[in-house]
């Protein structure tokens, strides 16, 4: 078997195929924009670190977002010494599979990134899991780099919960960013390298299609892949 998820993680994706295909055929709705956000402004690139399920899908979504210059798959929440795929997969390292997003604040705000994150990148009401993937390493987390990111994230979660846009409460954590560690090279752009893999077909490609449908002004057809700049 090729490098990537072991068989025990591919089989649940296959079993989940029918409901996921049904969901992909539905008409999802764009969530309201954050009431609290920074304005777009020219300046140096900014970085966001987000977690919510397998990093393959998160990377795929944000690489198709205009204004994003790089997305790395990796690990956050634990120590550098345990930032390896097999160890993180035990669920005992404190890490969550995450993505580090470098974006241009003149083209895209932090709040707009979070709007996409909550709308199409994952389900923020699932605790310690996403779809077929179960464990704390798949938890929903916003790792904030400064007080501004923390304020925007906490305000947006409160806004969405207050407006009851989801049937269940949001379980997304807002934690300080204490380190991001890039994942192994074979995980980078995995969805592009393995577009026919059942897990990618059923779990990740629908997210990119929903991005295109819901956020046409943000969507770009050609992804900004790792090392393309």
Task: Give the gist of this structure.
With 229 residues, the chain is of the alpha+beta class. It is built from 8 helices and 8 strands.
Alpha-carbon Rg, integer:
16 Å
Average pLDDT rating: 89
Instruction: Outline the low-pLDDT stretches.
Output: 6-26
Q: Specify the oligomeric state.
A: single chain
- The share of residues in extended strands comes to 15-25%
Shape label? globular
Q: What share of residues is helical?
A: 25-40%
The number of helical elements comes to 8
How does the major sheet shape up? Answer: 6 strands, mixed
Distance between the termini: 31 Å
State the fourth-level CATH superfamily. Peptide methionine sulphoxide reductase MsrA
Task: From the 3D structure, determine the CATH topology.
Answer: Peptide Methionine Sulfoxide Reductase, Chain A
Q: What count of structural domains?
A: 1
Secondary structure class reads alpha+beta
Reported CATH architecture: 2-Layer Sandwich
Order of helices and strands: HHEHEHEHEEEHEEHH
Major sheet strand order: 7-6-1-3-2-8
- State the total count of DSSP E strands: 8
Report what the structure shows.
With 229 residues, this protein is an alpha+beta fold. The chain has a single domain, classed as 2-Layer Sandwich (Peptide Methionine Sulfoxide Reductase, Chain A), CATH 3.30.1060. The protein contains 8 helices and 8 strands, in the order H-H-E-H-E-H-E-H-E-E-E-H-E-E-H-H. It has helices at residues 7-15, 17-24, 55-63, 85-88, 110-121, 147-162, 190-193, 198-214, and strands at residues 46-51, 68-76, 96-103, 129-130, 133-134, 141-144, 173-176, 180-182. A 6-stranded mixed beta sheet has the order 7-6-1-3-2-8, with helices on one face. The protein has a two-stranded antiparallel sheet with strand order 4-5. A hairpin with a 2-residue loop joins strand 4 (129-130) and strand 5. The longest helix is centred in the last third of the chain and has 17 residues, at 198-214. It is globular.
């Amino acid at each position: 078997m090729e490098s990537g998820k072991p068989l025990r993680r591919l089989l649940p994706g296959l079993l989940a195929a029918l409901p996921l295909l049904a969901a992909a055929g539905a008409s999802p709705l764009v969530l309201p924009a954050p009431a609290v956000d920074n304005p777009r402004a020219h300046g140096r690139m900014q970085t966001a670190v987000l977690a919510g399920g397998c990093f393959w899908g998160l990377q795929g979504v944000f690489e198709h977002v205009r204004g994003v210059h790089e997305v790395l798959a990796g690990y956050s929440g634990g120590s550098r010494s345990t930032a390896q795929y097999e160890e993180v997969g035990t669920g005992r390292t404190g890490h969550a599979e995450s993505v580090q997003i470098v974006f241009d604040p003149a083209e895209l705000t932090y709040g707009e990134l979070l709007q996409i994150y909550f709308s199409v990148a994952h389900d923020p009401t699932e605790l310690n899991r996403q779809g077929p993937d179960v464990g704390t390493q798949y938890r929903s987390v916003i790792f904030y780099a400064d007080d501004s990111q923390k304020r925007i994230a906490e305000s947006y979660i409160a806004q969405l919960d207050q407006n009851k846009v989801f049937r269940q409460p949001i379980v997304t954590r807002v934690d300080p960013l204490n380190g991001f560690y890039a994942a192994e090279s074979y995980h980078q752009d995995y969805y592009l390298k393995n577009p026919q893999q059942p897990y990618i077909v059923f779990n990740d490609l629908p997210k990119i299609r929903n991005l295109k449908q819901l956020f046409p002004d943000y969507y770009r057809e050609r992804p900004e892949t790792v090392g393309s700049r």
